[in-house]
């Protein structure tokens, strides 16, 4: 497959690039500044582009099979995240390319908590980080109702950090996946496995899904 990864030098993006390359895909890895191209695997096609620029989205998606958005704004500003999401949707509506967004966990519901959302549960999101949760809630809302693009929105578990690639995970929908201890966790390496499994065998169309151990 020909896959474009936006935010390719980020914590999540670089692992998605590496997982895609290891599976033999042709990867266009997009960074905002040419200074960061050297951080990318030499096996990827390094390109510069801004996800809030529709001309860049059209240019970087034309002829591709899939675009993965792994960008995160520095301030996690909800307004900026929505602009980026809407710009990507607009661009892909014109090029007809499928989209997989790596978003946030905040809008997931907490199992057994009467519909309470992760953003409102300090066990999973510290109140000091609420603005980050609000940005991801706004991002997901910007996707819902978008009928022109074949999109899917992957909510990571509450606890996502670098670790080992095990290839193991469980999928969920709108409810956070937790283990027997009530924790919701995944390594970023395994999140990249989830992304590439979905890329190769699409199961989620115009909907959200999640994954955790
Ligand atoms: N538990 C959770 O819910 C959870 C945990 C972690 C991550 N995430 C999500 O995973 C995604 C990626 O996070 P991350 O940790 O990998 O972030 P990160 O390490 O900060 O990387 C984000 C990348 O996005 C790039 N970027 C930002 N705005 C852009 C734009 N307009 N156009 C192109 N590139 C842009 C940045 O490039 P520059 O270097 O140019 O700024 C940066 O390389 C985010 O959506 C984040 O919310 C969720």
From TrEMBL:
One of its GO terms (molecular function) is oxidoreductase activity, acting on the CH-NH group of donors, NAD or NADP as acceptor. Residues 7-199 form the NAD(P)-binding domain. InterPro entries: NAD(P)-bd_dom, NAD(P)-bd_dom_sf, Polyketide_Oxido-like. It comes from the Bacteria. Pfam families: NAD_binding_10. Gene3D superfamilies: NAD(P)-binding Rossmann-like Domain. This is NAD-dependent epimerase/dehydratase family protein. It comes from Sedimenticola thiotaurini. The lineage of its organism: Bacteria, Pseudomonadati, Pseudomonadota, Gammaproteobacteria, Chromatiales.
